[in-house]
């Protein structure tokens, strides 16, 4: 039978070094609040129950996590008396009797589900406690993992460590798994007689051993357990996240011509055989189907891109855009809340907003859908196979029929029937000889001015 697992995410930190009006754990990495990354990893590692321990901004933190895991419970920690004290804020959740308890930090968003699953596996094999360790370049400030014969015997906090213990390079990453059955008794046994006067969760190691339980440490990469305390570290974590995602995309069959310049969102769905040119930003909610090419300098949010679509260079796709197979959105085009049919082309300098465009329609350079009247947004419908001449303004609400043709430079205010030609501009007038007359008159005026000594 599957073991029931409770994850407790500690997020009562002050986070003052972020210099932010928002709680630290709500700052986004890849467009998703840090704490949601942690909650997502816990869920992916099979954790069925989730609790968060919150300080200031508790309601906002809870609301963010609830978008990830609906059943989340939050527990306030009113005084910050240490990591064990924080875990005990979630006493009611632990008391429900779970098999595994995972403790995670809300400001460590790169933790991988695989690592959490490995820690749980150690518990499944009979250990009472499993600690995730790592080898930081500089161990200063971390709890040192003191091992004897493959068993973890203690975690010594920097301030309480002897010189010999301080020489240990293997450190506590902060992620801990322990058996739920006797957890509360052991957590309650933790005191605060140490250098910081705090209730250290790390004391659980020695307490569990005294109770005859086996305790083990597993190892993970430094990258994965990087914590965020300021915005320099936030950027470092973002960079690591992006690197990981780019690598995954490439290994999944996506060509990234200059990977370091492509930015993904936490939820970007990108198929094999997509090519992404340099300097492309994927905002939230983007999916790209196979065979599509995203040309350089494109910015895309909440858009679905069909097979063999071509986007950009310099395209901006805004929320609600859906491009069907083989459609094309070219340079300096903006598309918002629009359904673009199969093989339709919007190639140059165009704004399409609140529109449906039929299959194989051709939208000429500089076309604008005038969707906003200063108060309300209106819909433009363009039929299949329609042709919109360059520099036309389509004043919504308006419908251009299937196979209709709009003459260049038109301002279309009335519906155009299927197959009709609409021209909505002044007719051209040619005046013989008048052009030369104007040019000569202007040149004469310029000459007269320089003869009278007046400059320019
Ligand atoms: C802790 C570990 C240390 C480990 C390090 C990894 C303890 C005693 N020490 O030290 O072994 O190497 O993390 O980064 O556990 N928190 C609360 N309430 C509290 C105290 C902390 O919610 O009362 C939260 C913080 O928001 C933070 C996390 O717990 O996310 C860790 O707390 P912090 O004070 O940063 O612990 P460290 O001293 O870094
Ligand atoms: Ca810390």
Number of individual domains: 2
CATH class of the largest domain: Alpha Beta
Q: Report low-confidence residues grouped into runs of 5 or more.
A: none
Helix content: 10-25%
CATH superfamily membership of the largest domain: Spore Coat Polysaccharide Biosynthesis Protein SpsA, Chain A
Beta strand %: 25-35%
Mean of all residue-level pLDDT scores:
97
Present the secondary structure layout.
Elements: E1 5-11, E2 28-29, E3 32-33, H1 34-44, E4 49-54, H2 58-66, E5 73-76, H3 83-89, H4 91-94, E6 100-105, H5 113-124, E7 129-134, E8 144-148, E9 151-156, H6 163-166, E10 171-179, H7 183-188, H8 204-210, E11 215-219, H9 231-251, E12 255-256, E13 262-263, E14 269-270, E15 275-276, E16 280-282, E17 286-288, E18 293-294, E19 299-300, E20 303-305, E21 310-311, E22 315-317, E23 321-323, E24 328-331, E25 333-340, E26 345-348, E27 351-357, E28 362-363, E29 368-370, E30 380-382, E31 387-388, E32 393-395, E33 398-400, E34 405-406, E35 411-412, E36 421-422, H10 434-451
Parallel strand pairs: 1-4, 1-6, 4-5, 7-11, 12-15, 13-16, 14-17, 15-18, 16-19, 17-20, 18-21, 19-22, 20-23, 21-24, 22-25, 23-25, 24-26, 25-27, 26-28, 27-30, 28-31, 29-32, 30-33, 31-34, 32-35, 34-36
Antiparallel strand pairs: 2-3, 6-10, 7-10, 8-9
Describe the structure.
It is a single chain. This protein has 456 residues and is α/β, with parallel strands linked by helices. It folds into two domains: 5-225, Spore Coat Polysaccharide Biosynthesis Protein SpsA, Chain A (Alpha-Beta Complex), CATH 3.90.550; 231-422, 3 Solenoid (UDP N-Acetylglucosamine Acyltransferase, domain 1). It contains ten helices and 36 strands. Strands 13, 14, 16, 17, 19, 20, 22, 23, 25, 27, 30 and 33 form a twelve-stranded parallel β-sheet that branches. It has a ten-stranded parallel β-sheet with strand order 12-15-18-21-24-26-28-31-34-36, covered by helices on one side. A seven-stranded mixed β-sheet has the order 5-4-1-6-10-7-11, sandwiched between helices. A hairpin with a 2-residue loop joins β8 and β9. The chain starts with a strand and ends in a 5-residue tail after the last helix. The model has no long low-confidence stretch (mean pLDDT 97). The structure holds uridine-diphosphate-N-acetylglucosamine and calcium ion (CA).
């Amino acid at each position: 039978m599957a073991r029931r697992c409770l994850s407790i995410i500690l997020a009562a930190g002050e986070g003052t070094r972020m210099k932010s009006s928002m709680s630290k754990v709500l700052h986004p990495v890849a467009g998703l609040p840090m704490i949601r990354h942690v909650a997502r990893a816990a869920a992916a590692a099979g954790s069925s129950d989730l609790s968060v321990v919150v300080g200031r901004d508790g309601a906002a933190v809870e609301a963010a996590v609830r978008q990830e895991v609906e059943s989340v419970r939050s527990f306030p920690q009113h005084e910050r008396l240490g990591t064990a004290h924080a875990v005990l804020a979630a006493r009611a959740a632990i008391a429900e009797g779970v098999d595994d308890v995972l403790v995670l930090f809300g400001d460590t968003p790169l933790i991988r589900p695989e690592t959490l699953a490995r820690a749980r596996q150690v518990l499944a094999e009979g250990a009472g406690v499993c600690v995730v360790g790592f080898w930081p370049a500089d161990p200063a400030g971390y709890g040192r993992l003191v091992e004897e014969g493959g068993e973890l015997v203690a975690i010594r906090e920097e301030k309480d460590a002897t010189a010999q213990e301080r020489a240990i390079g293997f450190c506590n990453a902060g992620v801990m798994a322990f058996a739920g059955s006797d957890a509360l008794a052991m957590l309650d046994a933790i005191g605060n007689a140490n250098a910081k006067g705090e209730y250290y969760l790390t004391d659980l190691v020695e307490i569990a051993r005294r109770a005859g339980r086996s305790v083990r440490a597993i190892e993970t990469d430094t990258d994965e357990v990087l914590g965020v305390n300021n915005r320099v570290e936030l950027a470092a974590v973002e960079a690591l996240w992006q690197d990981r995602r780019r690598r995954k995309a490439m290994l999944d069959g996506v060509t990234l011509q200059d990977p370091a310049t492509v930015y993904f969102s936490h939820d970007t769905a990108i198929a094999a055989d997509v090519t992404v040119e340099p300097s492309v930003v994927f905002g939230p909610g983007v999916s790209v189907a196979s065979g599509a090419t995203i040309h350089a300098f494109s910015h895309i949010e909440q858009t679905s891109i069909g097979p063999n679509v071509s986007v950009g260079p310099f395209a901006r796709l805004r929320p609600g855009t859906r491009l069907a197979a083989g459609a094309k959105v070219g340079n300096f085009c903006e598309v918002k809340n629009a359904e673009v049919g199969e093989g339709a082309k919007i190639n140059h300098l165009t704004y399409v907003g609140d529109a449906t465009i039929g299959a194989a329609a051709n939208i000429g350079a500089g076309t604008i859908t005038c969707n906003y009247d200063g108060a309300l947004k209106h819909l433009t419908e363009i039929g299949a196979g329609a042709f919109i001449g360059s520099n036309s303004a389509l004043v919504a609400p308006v419908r251009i029929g299937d196979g209709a043709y709009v003459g260049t430079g038109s301002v279309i205010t009335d519906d155009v029937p299927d197959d009709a030609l609409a021209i909505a501009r002044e007719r051209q007038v040619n005046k013989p000889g008048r052009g030369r007359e104007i040019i000569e008159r202007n040149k004469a005026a310029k000459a007269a001015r320089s003869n009278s000594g007046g400059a320019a």
